[in-house]
Structures are given as C-alpha cells and as structure tokens.
C-alpha cells in the first residue's frame, strides 16, 4: 500500500439502500399507489423482504468487510395517518440501527428517500403550504430513535423530486413533456428520448428547489436541537459538461437541476454526492444519450469518471462542506463490469481527495438488487436476491469492495 492509493484514515466504506426499494409492503406510500394506477409499471410487492431480513443484510455487509450502511426510514410506515405516529414502526427502525451498531457498522440514516405517505401526496405534497410543518412533525418523531446515529440525511435527491414536480406541473398545464421513471429502463423511441432528455429531467424550477431547501433547513434545525448527528442531504449529481457552444446553457440547466441544492447545503454538516454517469449540454440543452455496447441497463453511458466530476463540482458549489459519496454504481448484469466501473470511479475519487477535497466515505449503490422505481430488470446490487425465495447471493463485487475497505486503499 502506498500513499498514492490510500484513502484518508477513518474513511467510511459501505453500501446504500432505500426503504421502498427493498422492504416490501409499503402500502401507505405514494409510490405504492402509483404502482397500482400506472399502466406498464411493475409492482414492488414484497420487494426484497428486507423489512424482515434486515439483520441478514447488515450481516452480509459487515462480513464482507464494509463498515457503513445507508438505509432509509419509511415516512409512510411511521406516520400512516396524519398526526398519528406508529411506535411499532419507530421501534422497528431502531432495531435496524441497533443491528448496525452491534456489527460495528456505522448507520447512515435517510429520513425521506423519494417516497412520501399517500395522504401527504394527496394533500398537495411538497407544494402544499403545510408541507414544511408536516415534514418537520415527522422528522421530530424520528429523533426519538436516533441516539448513536452519527450521519442523518433529511432527504434523498430533492433535485430529482423537484424535477418530477416541475414535470407534473407542465403536464397539468398541457406543456410538451412527459415524466419518466428516475431509472429509465423501458425502450424509448429516439423522439421520446430526445424529448425526455431535453425537456423533463433537466429543468427543475429553481423556485421549487428553493422551497425544498427551506424545508430541509427547518428539518436540519430540529435534528441539531434534538440529536448529536451530523445533518445533510443527498443530491443527484448529473456530472454535466458543456459541448462546444453550450457553456452558457450548461450554467442555466445545471442551476435548476443541481446548483440551487448545492447552495442549500452550505451550512450543513455534510453533503451527499450521488453520481452514476455524465451528459453533455449544448446550446439547446442536454444532449440525448447515444446507444453504445458499454451502455448500462438504464441506457446511460459507462462513465465512471462522473464521480470525480461530480465531487469537484459539489466541493466548489458548497464552499467546502465535507462530502460523503452516498450513491455510486452501475446497472449491469456483468459483475466484472461493475468491479471495473467501481475501481475507475474510486481512482477518480482518490484524485479529487489528493487535491484537498474533503470526502469522508464511499457508499456503493446498491447493497441489493432491488426494485428500481417501476422496474425490476436493472441490477445495481453487490448482492443478488431471488425474488421467489429471497435468498441472498453475494456477487464477487461485494468481496472485492470489502477487500478495498479492509486495505483502505486500491490495490
């Protein structure tokens, strides 16, 4: 091991999951209802049954040599009815935290990972005047179980949630554009891909972003008052770059898509970077992806360098807030490609750290092959899951990443 490959002392190595994608049976969530009402959308149903098998999942992670686990609490389980908190649900998530601590695994807890209670969505969601009050009420309830938790994220990918809100508003208004799953697995025509790339995912209304920033700050203050945790949130980083002539458009697109949220991280204890691929922006907007043999199962280019691009941009925009890689991975059925991608991503991450960027850890997406927001086909996991028996089968990539964690260095 040399200084050229070593990561900082105390660097976290782990993997991430999300409640709705692995737990199963989240019948009170907005996504559960969306699944039932959207033609062509596959159902989450029992998912990976991790609501009952979380101890096994934590054990597999720890036994592989990883020392941190990011998971989310399901708001719809904890507050299934407005103002009524389920003590049993809170107790369950405390058991998940305790399972981590018993295995010397650092829990990284996300309070809201893309789903909300169905009643919250029906009452206007994040756009409702009462949204901040409702979210803060829920966050306050969760603080009763966060003793010993060092890392807490208020929200996962608020910028993706804002993009969806913008797209929904356009659809209601009759504007050209359609909302597509955050993980795009289905086949699209060139026209559909072009429209989706340029019009929907790229352009979140900055005003919606600022509203979510305000809600995040309100939740942050509650967490700081009631816990000892370091508080932040996680941002979907597009690792956008400018095509010739697209420099000004890049600034415009990236502001609504990301930068208003990175700015909102200033004053946080940390910020989560979530990067998978990269995309160019020309004078018209984001350039649609071109199919390639190395493209992932969700149609994005093989771009492990996206992590380094995203980390450098996040460090600049947050003003040096400590960063945690909370998601990075690849949708592939080829585990050798997963290892290759992760190695190259970590090489870029190490280069950014060597240049003085404060990165505290790397959490791979995902621990398990799981429900990818309307689809089961894309496989991001370090562990395969049999959907009939729920048997977990670790892939070589899990052992490989565990060895990296053990050495705290790339070989």
Number of strands: 13
**Topology order in helix (H) and strand (E) letters:** EHHHEHHEHHEHHHEEHEEEHEHEEEH
CATH topology: TIM Barrel
Structural class: alpha/beta
Instruction: Determine and state the CATH class.
Output: Alpha Beta
CATH superfamily: Glycosidases
Helix coverage percent: 40-55%
Indicate the CATH architecture.
Alpha-Beta Barrel
Compute the separation of the termini in Å: 7 Å
Contiguous low-pLDDT stretches (5 residues minimum) are 175-179, 184-188, 197-202
Give the overall shape, derived from the CA principal axes: globular
pLDDT averaged residue by residue? 92
Strand content: 15-25%
Can you describe what's shown?
The protein has a single domain, classed as TIM Barrel (Alpha-Beta Barrel), CATH 3.20.20. It is 42% helix and 15% strand. The chain has 14 helices and 13 strands. The protein has helices at 19-22, 30-37, 50-63, 75-78, 87-102, 118-122, 131-142, 158-173, 190-200, 206-226, 247-264, 306-318, 335-354, 396-407; strands spanning 12-16, 68-72, 106-110, 151-156, 230-237, 240-242, 271-275, 279-282, 285-286, 323-328, 359-365, 383-385, 392-394. Helix 8 (158-173) packs across helix 11 (247-264), helix 10 (206-226) packs parallel to helix 11 and helix 12 (306-318) runs parallel beside helix 13 (335-354). The model is unreliable at 175-179, 184-188 and 197-202 (pLDDT under 50).
